[in-house]
Amino acid sequence: MTSTPGRTPHPYYPRDLVLEHYVPNTNSVVKSLGHVLLAFSTVVCLALALGRPKRHTTLQHFEDRLTFFWFVLCGLLHILFEGYFGINHATLAGDLSPVAQVWKEYALSDSRYLSSDPFVLVVERITTLVWGPLAIYSAWSLYHDLPSRHIAQLILSLGQIYGCILYYWTSIVEGSPECHPDPYYYYFYFWFFNIFWMIAPVFLARRSIHILCEAIVQQEK
Q: What is the value of pTM for the model shown?
């Protein structure tokens, strides 16, 4: 751990990173991951409850129910979890709330979340203020089968893909100096936990583009 006189040593990289208010987590890794699983399970139950098919809804098919769940997950994650970071980023290193301890555990793969990195801060605030509400609207418009659902879905998916590319690339191009060298943190935390926001949006964007193009062709006939 990095040790500086008068400061609590920390396990983050780069080794010379200064975290003035750092306080070690009191929760174990298992407990922090347990909180993540509990939150995920809550979102699953909420999405299942909200997504119960009714007469005038598109949620009759498994693919649409899965898409609805994805939007609910994104909306809550972007607004609540990432919103917490956006509000508390300056004091996150010393925060011992359950949400903060999950962030501090994840920060082992990307310490930019504890140093108020300008790029990460801007991206996360855009995610909270724009993509979060748009994800909720996408879920709502999907449930009510609104014509605007594919426009919202396409904008959201492209935004998520673009944000993910920038997030990965700004780290990789510098050699990922802010990531712990243990492959567990790099491949599981940094890559695995984020790659879903590359994969799912690609399929959703492709689907929306196809449907929107078909609608334009029909309109021009």
A: 0.89
